[in-house]
Protein 1
Amino acid sequence: MIVGIDIDGVIADSEPAYRRMINRLFNLRLKQKDITSYKYEECAGLTDDQMRLFWKTFYHEGGWLKIKPIKGVKKFLDKLKREKHRIVIVTSRPRKHIKKETLQWLKEHKMPYSELIFLENHKSKHQAALLRGHRFDYFIEDYYKYALDLAKRKVKVLLMDYPWNRWGKPHPNIKRIKSLKEAEAIISKERTIK
Ligand SMILES: [Mg+2]
C-alpha cells in the first residue's frame, strides 16, 4: 500500500518545541490544551509580527533540528518498510527555507521513506502526490483541513488527535487515533484481510 504521512505532529513532535519557545519569547504559559487552532495567531492571540519573530528565532536557534520524534514513529515506519508499504511524506513546511533542516532531521533520526514531497503551492496533499504518481491508500495527518480534503478524495485518513483538530467534524473516511500504535494496528489488520 501507499501510506502518506505528514511530518509535524505525526513524525516530528513539533508543537511542544514551538510552544516552549513562544512561552519564553512572549512570557506566556501556554499548555498543549490551549492550542485549539493550527495557528498560534488564533489560539494564543499572537500578532503577525510576534509570529515572524518567533519563526525567525526558532530557525536561528536551530529549533528545527532539536524537535523530538513522535513516540513510536521510528518503530512504526520501520515496520511499514519491512512490510513493503511505500512511505510518502508530504509536508507543508516551506521548502525554500527549511528543506535542508528537514532532510537532515529525517536522516539523523533514521526515518525510512521513499519520497518527500513539499506541498508548496498546492492546496491538496492528494493532488500534490498524484502529480508524482502516488495515490494514497492511507494518510496520517494532524491538520483537519488536509485530512478532510484527503478523505473527500477517498483516501482513508488517520487523524492524530490533538486539541487543534478536535473541532473537526467526523467523516466516514477519517478515523481519529491517539497514537501511532493504533495506526500500526489498523494498517496491519487491513493487510491481513487483503
Ligand atoms: Mg502536521
Protein 2
Amino acid sequence: MKILLTGAAGLLGSQLAAALETETQVIRTTRQMLDLTNPDQVQQVVQQEAPQVVVNCAAMTGVDACELHPQAAFQHNATGPGLLAQACRKIGANLIHISTDYVFDGSKADAYTPEDHPSPLSVYGKSKLAGEQAVQNELPTACIVRVAGLYGIGGRNFASTLATLLTTPGTIRAVADNRMLTTYVPDVVNRLCDLIKGQYSGLFHVTNDGIPSSWYEFAQAGAILLGTQVRAQLVPVHEAELHRPAPRPMNSTLHCTRSEQLGLRPLPDWHEALARHLKSDR
Ligand SMILES: NC(=O)c1ccc[n+]([C@@H]2O[C@H](COP(=O)([O-])OP(=O)(O)OC[C@H]3O[C@@H](n4cnc5c(N)ncnc54)[C@H](OP(=O)(O)O)[C@@H]3O)[C@@H](O)[C@H]2O)c1
C-alpha cells in the first residue's frame, strides 16, 4: 500500500509517518511540497503520487491564531481538506482526516459521542467542523478522526512540554475548570494504523481512556510522577483569568463509542500514557 501524509513534519504527522514506514511505502509531504491552500498543488501532487490512502495531519492548529486570522483558518482547516478529499476521489484513494474535540461547545454534562451535534465556540472549532463537512461532501468513504489534547515528543504545547515546565523553577498556571481526555501521540498512531488496515470509514473519536481531568489535574499527575525532580509551583486558574482570544469548551471529553462497537480495544488510561511520555522525555 502507498500512503501519502500531509503535515508530515508536525507532531502527529512525523510519528505516524515513522510508524507506517515500517510496513508500507509512505510519501511524507510538508507544507513546501503540498500546501493545502494551493488548489493546483494539492491536485497535482495527489495525482502524481497516486497513493491508495491519504492521511491529512496538516492544519492551522494555533487556536488563538485562528481566532485572530479567521480567513486563514478556514482556508487551511476547511477549504484545504475539501480540496484534498476531491483529489482523493478523482484517483480512487481514501482519506483519513484528523479533527478535534473543539467542534463541541462543552455544554454537555457527559462525554461527547460521534452522534452528538457539534456546535463549536471558536474560529478554530468552526473551521475544523467545516473541514469535516467538506471532506464528507467530497468523499463519503473518508474516515474522520477527532482527537483531543494531543501531546507527545516534539510537540510545543502544554502537555508535550510538561516535563520541562515542571522541572524548571517558576510558576505554572494550569486551567482547572475544564474537563477532557487527552490523546498521547504513540497511542493514536496505533489506532490510526488499525483504521488504515481495516479500511474504515466514518467518524471516530480517539483519546486515551480513564476519568476526564482538567489541565491542572493532568499537570498534578505529572508532578506526582516526576516526584523530587519538580522545581515549579503549580497554580490552578480559571480559563477566564487567562484572557485568551479564543473561547474553549469547558467539557470536551470524547467518548470513543465507535471504536468500542467495532471491537477495537480502548487506548490505555491517560495516567499510564502520561507516565510513558514523561519517561521518554527525560
Ligand atoms: N495539538 C492538539 O492539541 C490537537 C488537538 C485536537 C486536534 N488536533 C488536530 O490534530 C491534527 C495534527 O495536529 P498536530 O498537533 O500534529 O499539529 P502540528 O504539530 O501543528 O502540525 C501541523 C502540520 O501542518 C502543517 N501545515 C500547516 N499549514 C499547512 C498548509 N497550508 N499546507 C500543508 N501543511 C501545513 C504544519 O507545517 P508548518 O510547520 O510549516 O506550519 C505542521 O507540520 C490537526 O488536524 C489538529 O487540528 C490537534
Protein 3
Amino acid sequence: MDDSAAREEVRSLLASGLVTEVFPRADSQDDALAITARLRGADGLRQKLVIAGFTLETIVYAGIEQPCSTCMYFLVHRRYCELSELKLPVEPEWSCRLWRM
Ligand code: SF4
C-alpha cells in the first residue's frame, strides 16, 4: 500500500468514529515508554491508532498545540511519522499523544 492509500485508511478509520486514547498525553519519558511498549504489542492499524490517541485535529494540551507538523517524528516532505512503533503517513494537522517538540 502506498503512503496515499495508507493515509486515507487512517483518515477513514478516524472519521468513522474510532475512539482513541487521546488522554492522558505522554507527559514524561516513562509515559512515552509505556505507550510505545503497548504499541509494540498492537494488533493492526486500528489498535495502533487507539493506543497512540490519534486525532484528525490538532490537540491543544497545557497551552501547547500538538500537531504532527511540529513533532520531532514528522517527516515534512513525505508527511510521515517516523516513530518506529508507528511508521505511518499522517497529515500536518493530525495529532497523537506521543507528540514531542
Ligand atoms: S508521534 Fe508525532 S508525528 Fe507521529 S503521529 Fe504522533 S504527533 Fe504525529
